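Researcher: Quick sanity check before group meeting.
Model: Go ahead. Protein one:
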Amino acid sequence: MAASIRLLVCFLAFMGLALAQDRSEPQPEKPVELKVSTTAMMLCLGASMPMEMELTNRSGQEFKVDKVDLWNSFSYGHSRDDGSGRGGGQATGCSHCRGEYIVLVPEQKHVSTFNFALASDFFKDPGNYTIKLNYKQVSSNELHFELYDCNPK
């Protein structure tokens, strides 16, 4: 019994030390913060979702980004009533679109809008969906929206 108590005390001390070390290591700073919003939470199948993105420079130095990279990469998901679901994503590339840069000083914000077309096969079913915007290693908040069949047969 005494041996198991000593073992438990040693385990707890080790875990406490490991947690303290994890907290003391500085987390890598993300250079930007992305927030997305929409005014349309319920849409018809095949519609476009109006989105607004707020990009904030959270680094301590000037941040430069090519505009073509801002609305370039998305990840999304679909959940069904039975609890199942699926995920997907898309990224576009436009090499001839490059060269128009946004430069932000620390804590400066840039706001941009985009109409995300929900015309791909991923968005063919009515139901609940999520979408988020990605820029390099940074992801935005997740938007939740619902698609309806507005033209039932």
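Researcher: Fine. The other one?
Model: Protein two, sequence then structure:
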Amino acid sequence: MKETKTYQPRWHDPLAAWFFHIAASGLLPGSWFRDRLPPVSERRGATGILDLEIVSHCWQYAPMLAYQLSSLVHYPPSRLRVVVTVFYAVEDRNTFKLLEFFSAIEVKNVAWNWQPLPREKLFRRGIGRNMAARSTRAHWVWFTDCDIIFHANCLDSLADELQGRRDTLLFPRQERTTTMLAESDPMLQHDATPRLVAIDAAHFTPHNRDRAKGAYQVVHGDVARSIGYCAGIPLYQTPSEHWCKCYEDRVFRWLVGTQGLPIDVEGVYQIRHIHKGRYKKDTAWSKIRSAVRRMQE
């Protein structure tokens, strides 16, 4: 019988998390903790039909991922070639079945790239993002979350904005979001049988963004290949037995020395939801987090 490896928390992980949280405020230079950032003059300013890799993680979020993948079927790009990379764990059966369903759908200018991981590696999002950054062949990489939807003209308007650019980090200036949806909301009740789904855009309202946070990090491919994603910080490359809060987003911006530049991208939508599938349901911690999200709303 194959031995199952378990990953125990390291005693110094909380200290490392605290250290990098303080360091990312600008206390120390980010260049101390990464490989050489390629100078702007050495980066390719690609034009024409560009290559983009979209990178998502999914753990028990199949209803949200269905909207994301469906949007790429409904609104395929004409001025981009897109590789859609999704990291997942085979134990998450709803996500596994959903990816099987989309594997059978051919979309012009879209290539599916499903990447299974042991869930302990999936639970540390920096691991998958670093793998994708180091291996990508794309001109640009969009690190996103599976509750983001690429609606009408999203990817083609992105292609227009990226022409000839050599910037390190970009992000959509505006997104459209739902209110905080309860787990029982009809929009989230479709994970049993995989199928194409679509949003009602009238349920979303616009909001402006001020930095390349979380699901809105569009990174130049030469930068991604050169430095990875928090590759030089062991904390963010260490597996975990539970889903880790994604503090590495802030650390990544510190490493590259910018909050990102805003660009005008149409049709970026996000489904906001109270219950986080990646946290164990009905635990005290899950209930506390849901209550906090309600208060934030």
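Researcher: One line on it for the slide.
Model: Confidence is low (pLDDT under 50) at residues 282-297.
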